[in-house]
Amino acid sequence: MKYLHLLWRNLTRKKLRTVLTVLAILVAFLLFGYLSAVRQAFNMGIEVAGADRLIVRHKVSIIQFLPISYERRMEQIEGVADAVHQTWFGGVYQEPKNFFAQMPVEPVEFLEMYPEYVLEPPEYEAFLNTRTGAITGVTTAERFGWKVGDRIPIEATIWSKKDGTRTWEFDLVGIYEGAEKGTDTTGFFFRYDYFDEARAWGEGNVGWYTVRIDDPDRAAEIAEAIDREFANSPAETKAEPEGAFMQGFAKQIGDVAAIVTAIVTMAFFTMLLVTGNTMAQSVRERIGELGVLKALGFTHRGVLGLVLAESCLIAVLGGALGLALAAWLVSFGDPTPTASLPIFYFPARDVVIGVVLIFLLGLAAGFFPALRALRLQTADALRR
Amino acid sequence: MSESNNVLVRVHDVDKVFRRGSEEVHVLGGAHLEMPDGEFLALMGPSGSGKSTLLNLIGGLDRPSEGTVEVGGLRIDRLSDRKLAGWRARHIGLVFQFYNLLPVLTAERNVELPLLLTHLSRAERRKHVAAALGVVGLKDRSQHYPRQLSGGEQQRVGIARAIVTDPTILLCDEPTGDLDRTSSDEILNLLSALNEEQGKTIMMVTHDPHAAARASRTLYLDKGKLATEPEE
Question: B85 touching A, CB under 8 A?
Fold first, then answer.
């Protein structure tokens, strides 16, 4: 700490240069922080996916249906604890840009399968007792200003009703919270019995199954057993761990993680050059002063440490401000007008990575200038 | 640091070789010097005679190519770089021709620099700095930056920085070389006072006979030979 004043005064020696360098680093870390949230959003569900859950869909595509009779058959397979189904409803609330996922489910089984959706007991009871009842996550409720008791009309794009109309009306009986930070709280779930009886077609078919297994270590083996059970049938299945399913879903858009990594790597490489250049210039201008420090008794390593510390201090200033700014911007939530990124936050893991990157950038940028300072011979430096 | 026969600095058969391309230049050519504790020695000689090189060798800023350098009974030419730096911090006070103050630090912070290498607390460091600035008469200018001080004042700050650790020996490389006569006299008065009143051992390299006259002994260095009289 006693050297902090010296480090700080050296940094403020060329204020404009330091400010520009700090700003450049700030932008790189702002980019890193914000894109971390974007990457997290695209990995939606992968990290919070249950290790003990498999997703079973039609072998051809997820838009092909599976018979509801598969549920019981799957539950008889050794290692399967439970199976619940969901179906993509794809309705529109007021206008198409108000996108959110809606699915008919069996309330009891579904909420047992997904304990991360936390409902108050009275709301849970209301869901079981209200045929047109629906629950939604807190994010969607806040987005549209819904409260329990509201009647929500949703215009179907796939599922017309037997009476020929397309407007489905639901009674909002509960608003669920996420048990953990990455839990998707944008979903809208309503009762399958209401849906199945009222829909004009597709009766007895569902979109996909979520299967809970007894032993996550046997996931591959059980998935194979499920697929084998339905092999050579009109609706063959593809079973896979929930995380893998989510990942495949995210990759339909593109390998966002790879794109983000590429952008951030380029930004950091540029930063390395900018900061390295600043430090190299700074050391070059101060050869005589570094010589004086050595003459006064600072060791070669001590001077090396001072240069590295100075480089790290620049990186910390820019990096901390960049990460803080990113966290602030991310706190405003999903930046897309269609609310396409329901899980949008700055993951703690990436904050830690950011901090490590700050110091790596500082050390890497200061390495060659510090080496030069280390090798400087005292008498030679004083002669300059 | 004590010597039984009162000799503080003993330079024996010292040479320093510099390379200029393929050519080797022998600067000192086997110089001998003994300097008693408490002496104020002036070292004169033509440019390039090796005065500053000898000063650097005694201060442990450079190493001899040949010969030995002993200060306070310690062979400093044998010390590792790290030990030599530590030794310098404890025993050597350096005063430079162009002051060599850090422009980004105030006078107080410049004087404090050598104390950063000690285990003193900030309060203790400030006390030592105030005392050193008091000795050079610049207590009231402690918060001024070098650019806000005259040449003479900057050199006094340089002297305060040199004495703040209470070193064994003060090595001054043309301390008045960049100053006008009045400022030069102030600096020489200060060095004389440090020598006479505080018993500091001082070695001063100078081109100025007027400055050398203030020393208790003057040696002339030319072609590697130290003499009490200049060569004709």
Answer: yes
Nearest by CB to residue A297, choosing from B89, B96, B122, is: B89
Angle between helices B81-91 and A287-296 (to 10 degrees): 80
Task: List chain A domain ranges.
Answer: 4-45+254-383, 53-251
- Determine the Cα–Cα distance for residues B74 and B77; give it in Å rounded to an integer: 9
Question: 3-state class of B121 per DSSP?
Answer: coil
Q: Please check whether residue A280 is in contact with residue A373, taking contact to mean a CB–CB distance below 8 angstroms.
A: no
B2 in any annotated domain: no
The ipTM is: 0.91
CATH number at residue B29: 3.40.50.300
Could you tell me if A155 and A91 are in contact, meaning their C-beta atoms sit under 8 angstroms apart? yes
Domain around B219: 7-227
Sign of CA dihedral A290, A296, A300, A305: negative
**B117 contacts chain A (CB < 8 A):** yes
Q: How far apart are CA A70 and CA A54, in angstroms?
A: 14
Q: How far is A5 from chain B (nearest CA, A)?
A: 9
Note whether residue B232 is domain-resident.
Answer: no
In contact, A162 and A200? CB cutoff 8 Å: yes
B131 vs A243: CA distance, rounded Å: 70
Task: Read off the DSSP letter of residue A103.
Answer: E
Q: Which two tokens stand for residue B132?
A: 């050193």
- The long-range contacts involving A121-130, CB below 8 angstroms and separated by at least 24 positions, are A123/A148, A123/A173, A123/A174, A123/A175, A123/A176, A124/A174, A126/A173, A126/A174, A127/A173, A127/A174, A127/A191, A130/A171, A130/A173, A130/A191
B105 assigned to some structural domain: yes
Region of residue A29 (left: phi > 0; alpha: psi -120 to 50; beta: else): alpha
Closest Cβ–Cβ partner in B56, B104, B161 for A9: B104
Determine how β-strand B74-75 pairs with β-strand B225-227: unpaired
**How does pLDDT run across B130-153, given as a tens digit for each residue?**
999 999 999 999 999 999 999 999
How many Cβ atoms sit within 10 Å of the Cβ of residue B221?
23
Contact A295 B161 (CB under 8 A): no
**Average pLDDT, whole number, for chain A?**
89
Is B70 domain-assigned? yes
A98 confidence band (pLDDT: 50, 70, 90)? confident
Cβ contact, residue pair A9, B109, below 8 Å:
yes
Residues of B in contact with A6 (CB under 8 A): 102, 105, 109, 113, 116
Q: How far apart are CA B34 and CA B7, in angstroms?
A: 6
User: Which of B88, B124, B164, B174 to mutate against chain A (most A CBs within 10 Å)?
Assistant: B88
Amino acid at A185: T
Which residues partner with A288 through β-bridges? none
Domain count, chain B: 1
Nearest CA in chain B to A382: B100
Residue A126 in tokens: 């209301």
- The verdict on a CB contact (< 8 Å) between B81 and A292 is no
Model confidence band, residue A83 (pLDDT cutoffs 50, 70, 90): very high
The residue of chain B nearest to residue A9, with distances taken between CA atoms, is: B104
Q: Does B59 touch chain A (CB under 8 A)?
A: yes
